[in-house]
Amino acid sequence: MSPLLSVRGVHKTYVAAKRSKVVALEDVDLDVGEGEIVALIGPSGCGKSTLLRMMAGLDTDFEGDLSWSVPPRPGKDIGFVFQEPALLPWRTVRRNVSLGLEAQRDTSEQGREQVTTLLDLVGLTDFADSFPKELSGGMRQRTAIARALAYNPRILLMDEPFGALDAITRDRLHDDLLRIWETTHKTIVLVTHSVEEATYLADRVAVMSARPGRIKAVHTVPLSRERTPETRQLPEFAKFAGMLRQELV
Ligand SMILES: Nc1ncnc2c1ncn2[C@@H]1O[C@H](COP(=O)(O)OP(=O)(O)OP(=O)(O)O)[C@@H](O)[C@H]1O
Ligand SMILES: [Mg+2]
Q1: Residues of the chain under the 70 pLDDT cut
Q2: What are the pocket residues of ligand 1 if the criterion is a CB atom closer than 6 Å to any ligand atom?
Q3: Among 5, 72, 166, 182, which one has the highest count of C-beta atoms within 10 angstroms of its own C-beta?
Q4: Which of 76, 79, 33 is nearest to 52 (CA)?
Q5: CA-CA distance, 181 to 191, in Å (whole number)?
Q6: Which stretch of DSSP H or E encloses residue 60?
Q7: Which ligand is closest in space to the CA of residue 62?
Q8: Which of the listed residues 13, 15, 22, 81 should we mutate to test ligand 1's pocket, taking the one with most ligand atoms within 8 A of CB?
Q9: How many whole angstroms separate alpha carbon 143 and alpha carbon 130?
Q10: How far is the CA of 49 from the centre of ligand 1 (A)?
Q11: Where do the ABC transporter domain residues begin and end (predicted)?
Q12: Res 27: pLDDT
């Protein structure tokens, strides 16, 4: 079966100020299957965000080929969580989360309930009427996660979504994301710096090398799909995370 997304021979060069060139991605190949959770891990500046933006269709200026077996409908099928939560400052938390639904002109009761459920899921019920400037960094990031989930995209592209969160909230959101995946089987590409996060969440982990970014290796996580907090205690978990850590240095 062909993968949902296949990336072939992708090169990306940025022309920065004073016309200096930065080769961000070189000869990148990657497949993402339908319903799969793929983690992208690599050192800072290796091109993870660049690759994710291409997948989202936000950057089309590159060489190589990026093809979908079922092309996502713009603004409907792809949910994107940016590395820096891009919230609208003049909208409350609830109205930021419901942005995608409004864009789709979904004013249904079901849509409103979905927003309420998601606010609860990310622990922001009490802040539903607050504005972004009144939130902590982690709360802003949780709002952005809820917003990406609100319009029920088929594909979720997440750029270090949990990086700014405290360890307890992060672990809880990992389990929430897995629960959402169990019921929806969304395709997820997740950029992370954390080998533990990649191991806990992903089916496969793509390890990138430092600039220019290439995919050094793609590993299948040797754990059953069902992950619970106890999974983190398994010897296979520590062994796999340790192997990723080695590969990153
Ligand atoms: N708009 C841009 N103009 C010029 N260079 C850019 C631009 N965006 C990214 N770059 C360069 O491309 C390279 C890859 O950047 P990218 O943001 O994709 O890295 P990253 O892997 O996401 O890093 P981090 O883990 O720090 O978020 C970096 O060297 C960066 O300086
Ligand atoms: Mg980045």
Answers
A1: 1
A2: 14, 16, 22, 24, 42, 44-50, 83, 211
A3: 5
A4: 79
A5: 17
A6: none
A7: 1
A8: 22
A9: 11
A10: 7
A11: 5-235
A12: 95
